[in-house]
Every structure is written in structure tokens, then in C-alpha cells.
Batch of 2 targets.
Target 1
Amino acid sequence: MDRRRQNTLLIDPGARARVWCKRCGAELKDTVSRQRQLGAECDPEPRTGDGSRHDVDQDPIPGL
Ligand SMILES: [Zn+2]
């Protein structure tokens, strides 16, 4: 049990591998940016989970 606790201490969430934006080189702090290696300003893909998605209700295609 103590050993597990030490492992937790070794993994400092504030000192994880640093990731920088592939385009502008800014350091990425949020999870989505780190995964994509693109900052929010440089990422062409819409983000999920930030409340600013551009989802459009799509009508079912007639005839199907
Ligand atoms: Zn960038």
C-alpha cells in the first residue's frame, strides 16, 4: 500500500510531459490540445466538450 502511494507521488500531474503546438509553438495546457498537439487557435477541428460546438440538427433524408 505504501508503495502504491509513492508511485502516485512520483507522477506529478503538474509536471507531465510538456506539449507544444505544432503550428505556433505555444505550450499546450489542456487535454484536448495536448492530444492533438494543436492549440485551440490553430486547431481546424471543432472542439468537443467546451460548449461551443457547431452541431446542427439534421433532418432525416427524405425517401430513406
Ligand atoms: Zn498554436
Target 2
Amino acid sequence: MEVKKCKMYDDSSIASDEAKIHIKKLLQHLNKKDWQDTLLFMLPQLSFNELNAVTNSNGRICSDVIKGPITILNSIVKDIKERVPFNAIFPSERLNLPTSGENSDCDPNITIHVDEFLYNDNDIEELLNAGKLQQYYCKNCGSKNIKSLIYISHSLSQDALHYIFNHLLPILKDKTILDIGSRLGAVLYGAYMYTDAKKIIGVEMNKDFCELQSKIVHKYNMQDRIDILHKRIEDAPDTIKSADVIVLNNVFEFYLSEVEQIQVWQFLRTTMTKGTIVVTKPYIEETLKHLNTVIKINEWLRRIKEPQGSPAPNLFCMPLADEQGKYSDIASYEVL
Ligand SMILES: C[S@@+](CC[C@H](N)C(=O)[O-])C[C@H]1O[C@@H](n2cnc3c(N)ncnc32)[C@H](O)[C@@H]1O
């Protein structure tokens, strides 16, 4: 019985090696556009390691044709768009619009929720040009007295993920990354694509989002390193303690009352362990400014001023620096 199992395994690995050779040959004969279409069709069947087999002689993924993780992330985006409403907010969610702080102007009548992971700047421009999104609202109907609508994203953009994992953070080989409030899973997929972290954990209190993440993780064979926990972070102290890196993208402001936000920040203050790296958007100083948490940030966290990532070109030949100050509201800290 055991021998048979081994043989089957051997046969299938020979077959897959042969398949790779055929696929490589096939791809060599396609033009750039057809390459991309074909890969978008094939990617959900490939794991990241298998994808690495499609490299050129320098060992780099053929970046003129396929931008590795970007292509996979784009494919994931396409899948998620088919599964969520346009504003990426599930009916099961109860948004709690802020009444104090920077975002207290988010009146539901003039606030549009557009998810940056699903729609990048170019997509938004296209939607605006096509009249599918509006940029302004009229303060006195019929007059030219117009004002910009407020755009809110509840996920990190692909560019921001690239910046965080390739530039801001050090190499995370064998480390554990925790995303608190993992929502669509953007941080989880970004961490999977851009790092060698041993474990990537998403904690999310909304069941529908956990199910969505789980479908994507399985479709793209990421379950070897990604775990999804359907719970409130307050109920996961051991997960917090196990993390080397914790990502907090404006996680509580739109979802919890001010009293709950104060409690959860105090819980994080006492639960995170010394040496953990914390990535926040916006700066934690900004988030806590209008909450009466009595947390002394400088006794809890030390801001890491210099990006820890290597400035050398990475495998996918992507620009690394925050050239236009696009990510100036993202900061990293070390827990003291
Ligand atoms: C702004 S989204 C962050 C999305 C994701 N981390 C990213 O950057 O793309 C915040 C998410 O946190 C979840 N959330 C809020 N409070 C939570 C809590 N106490 N425990 C677990 N999840 C929470 C919300 O349901 C929401 O999906």
C-alpha cells in the first residue's frame, strides 16, 4: 500500500515537471497580452513556489511579461470583486461612523467607500471618467458651489502592501505576521506574496469576511502559511503574543464605539510583547489623539524611523522607495 502511494507521488511529480516544460514552451510562443490572459487563467491552479519555476536565466521571474505577485494579486482582486458589493461592505456589517477625530466629517451622504485593494488610482480615474463614481457634490443644488466627496478605503492598496513588505519592514523569514481586522485579506495575500514569513494570521470579527478570505486562500493554495481566525482580537491574546509583526490599518475607528476602542487599545498595550514590530496606518499618535486611553505612547512604542528593508532591487524589479510620500501616513514601531 505504502509503495503504491510513493509510486503515485513519483508519477505525478514527473508529470508536473513535464507539464511545466510544456507550459514554458507554450508561453514562449504567446505575445505579451496573450501571456497575461493565459496566466490569469492558470494562476489560481499554481502555488507561489511553482510560479517561481517560470524564471529567466537570472533566476528572476520574467518581469516584462508577468510581474509575479502583482499578477497573482490582480487575479485575487478580480475574484473578490465578483464576491462582494461594489463598496466592499457586507450587509452583515454595522459601520460606526466616527464622531470625533480626523474622520468625523464622514457624513454618510457625502462619503463614498471605495476599497483601495480592489480599485487602484487608475481604476478610480476610469470609474470617474465613465460617470460611475462622482468626485464632487453640490452644496446648493444647481449652483457651482461644489465640494469634494470624501473617499474612504477599508483596505490597504497593493502599492502600500508592496511598500510595507519590501521596504518598510526587515526580511521576515521564519517570522509570524498578524493582521488585526483582516477584512478582504489584502494584508494576508500581500504578506504571502512578498515575504517568507512562516505564519501569516488574520483575525477578523466578521464571519462573511472570514469565509471570503478562506475561499481565496484555498483557491490560491496559500493555506500552508495563512491562518484565518474568526474572532474578536480581544479574545486572541496568545495570537498577539506569538506575533513578530502586527499590522493595524485603521482597524477600530469605523467599527467600534469610542468606549470599545479605548478598551481594545488598552488591551493591546498590555498584551503585545517586547520586540514586536507594529505597523500602523495612520500613525498611532494620530489614532489615539482623540481617545482618552491614558496610554503613554513613548513608554510603549519606539518609532522606527529608517525603513528596514533592503534598498537592493528585489526579485520582481519593483521600485522600493516611497518616492512621492504616498505612504507618509504609514509608520512602524518597536514594542518596548
Ligand atoms: C479597516 S479594515 C482593515 C482591513 C485590512 N487589515 C487591510 O488593511 O486591508 C478593519 C477590519 O477590522 C475588523 N475589526 C474591527 N474591530 C475588530 C476587533 N475588535 N476584532 C477583530 N476584527 C475587528 C472590521 O470588521 C474590519 O473588517
